[in-house]
Amino acid sequence: MGRLTRSIRLGMKSLLLHKLRSGLTVLGIVFGVGAVIAMMALSEGKSRAAQEAIKELGATNIILRSVKPAQDTLSSTTRGPSILTYGLKYADYERILETVPNLRKALPIREIRKEIRRGPYMLEGRVVGTTADYLEFNSLKMARGRFLTENDSKNRDNVAVLAHETAQVLFPFENPIGQSVRLGGDYYTVVGVTRERASTAGIGGSLAAQDYNRDVYIPLETARIRFGDKVIERRSGAFQAEEYQLSQITLQLGSMEEVMPTSEVVKGAYLPYHSAKKDVEMTIPYDLLLAAQREAFQGKLLLGCIAAISLLVGGIGIMNIMLATVTERTREIGIRRALGAKRRDITQQFLIETVVLSGVGGLLGVALGVLMPVFIQVWLPDQKAYVTTESVLLAFAISVIVGLLSGLYPAVRAAAMDPIEALRHE
Predict the structure, then answer these.
(1) Cα 258–92–114 angle (5° rounding)?
(2) Percent of the chain surpassing pLDDT 70
(3) What residues are paired with 161 via a beta bridge?
(4) Residue 77 binned pLDDT confidence (cut-offs 50, 70, 90)
(5) Which among 20, 40, 11, 26 has a CA at the least distance from the CA of 302?
(6) How many CB atoms lie within 10 A of CB 393?
(7) Of the residues 36, 181, 271, 303, which has the fewest C-beta atoms closer than 10 A?
């Protein structure tokens, strides 16, 4: 223990004799460790954002979405519009309910872009025909009033629930409950207002980003009667018409273990009727979640390897400085050997110096790595970064290991010197 203490004391004294050189050597480790932690923090931020977006869709859900066929036939004719018929139908919904026995819940959705009016106030938003389960499926909360009920759809009532921003635009100074809004040519009584909800990111090719704050929710059966299945628009003097019945069907299962087997049953229920047009796409959030987790791990590994290169450069700097130190202290090594120091004592002293250099650099690098994501979020508020304990420990451990490996050759070289030749060194 006495020899180890003496070696540590001698090592520290040697490093402090060359403060500038030691400080510049430490910088390579500092920036290397900081880069590893910062890059892994950015990778973690992107990974969490992607996984949260997928989890919002429900890990036990299967989502079917109507998509416009690749061959767009919406060309005008001389006598009238041609109609592109595509997407999910009510018959698909009924067939899935009959075919898939282990469904917990099923949510049909019809989405239409409409002008939403109330007196002088107007905004363009999404009218969503749906059922009472929409609230739970999309994690919405009520701010006022109530959401849609089964009786609303059964009776085909003209009732509406406004989203947060829709209510603020149409009723800036009034309580919207009990008031009327106009959708198309019909008026709807407002029965509820939802709380503000963060928009979701786009997932996959068939699920675009959704802003839930500019919606109006009406009973599905009411939407079916009032708006029908055709959507006709006039653009550049030509009529464009589409016909679809349901925009989306979300199926909820009891557990994640049921998702993949059930997805094959669901495919069998709808695919034979849509395989030619390819106008329905199925998204499985659980499958996307697993893929996102794999990609996150691969991304961390790649970024970690790239950042570790800077640590390797720092290690080369340590080896370079230690080789120079061995040359400078050749006579000192010869004197110590002549006075009885063993080879392991010489090796131990030089290894201690390299560990001190890499350890101090590692600690300063950890501090820099923890602070860098904070600065990044100040400059780029939308870019999330999370520093994890694993990344800190990994970066620090790598810095110490790099220091040890970099100092091993100089230490062995110093210990292997012949004492007589070392004493003759000028």
Answers:
(1) 110
(2) 82
(3) 192, 217
(4) very low
(5) 40
(6) 11
(7) 271
